[in-house]
Model the fold of this input.
Amino acid sequence: MLKPLLFTAALLPLLSACNPAPQAELQVANRSTQSASLARDGSHAVIGSTYQGGSYWQVSPGERLYDWNHSDDTTRLILHSAISSDGGWAITADHQTLVLWDTASGESVAYWRISAEINALALGRYGNVALLGLADGRAVLYDVRHGGTFGTFQHDAPVNAVALSDDLSLALTGGDDQTARIWDTQSGQQQSARKYDKAIQQVALSPDGKRALVAARYDGIELFSTSSDELNWTLPLGHERIIRGYSLSAARFSDDGAYLLTGRPDGRVQLWDIDGQQALYHWQLPKLDPWQPKPTSVLAVSFTPNPEHYRAASGNGYIYTLSY
Done:
């Protein structure tokens, strides 16, 4: 499935602007990017390009390591992807097929076809288990090495967003039924549920599974405790942004669960101090064309080993390194 590398890009310094500007940019697609996922430490990325198919990148120095497609003779659009928390595995999906990849060799390990359309996915540590959000109202804990399911979690409408804790004990799912549900993956039982006024667009779990984020369109973005279901904080987005439907297109907790990094459809990336309940910093990703009517959406965000550096993948075909 591997193809010759198409090009190698380098990290390029950017000029400063009125808004805090990215420190560096890496072009990962010639035109638009349909999907993207970043490794937990921001070191690597899976890109689903509208025109070039799937690829796996080392972000710094910028290098395209592998071309990943679901067919040897056809470039398919990669709609969803995820990288395991240990960084050793990645998974890609189109509408109904999944491929598990070894990130060290670039080789495909398993290929599966799913009976329902895939809306969202998360990959567990060591690449053994994936949580799939499906259009038929199910979230499925899937054995990506051998096929089959470990558990099925039911919603009343399509499931749009999913997340797993590092130890795989908790799953968080959100759907068009306007409900976010936390599941005990061992028993398969629902642990709690939170109801919203609109469909759920984004969910996230801290690595230890103690904190959860739920974002619904035209509603507040909530952080709550998974053990008590107690609301910890509603992010202060502002009334205007909420009524215009600005929600989150990407979200990730820090390793210790104390900080949150979010990305929005309008190109804004924000760093939040959860315990202090305050926004620490924000960046506005640049437009490639000054005449472009709207910024492109933030598709993925990550922390890095350097506490002053963060990364964001954008729909304009670039990965940005952000600092303050």
User: Anything to note?
Assistant: The chain has one helix and 29 strands. Residues 1-18 have pLDDT under 50 and may be disordered. The first strand starts at residue 12 and ends at 13.
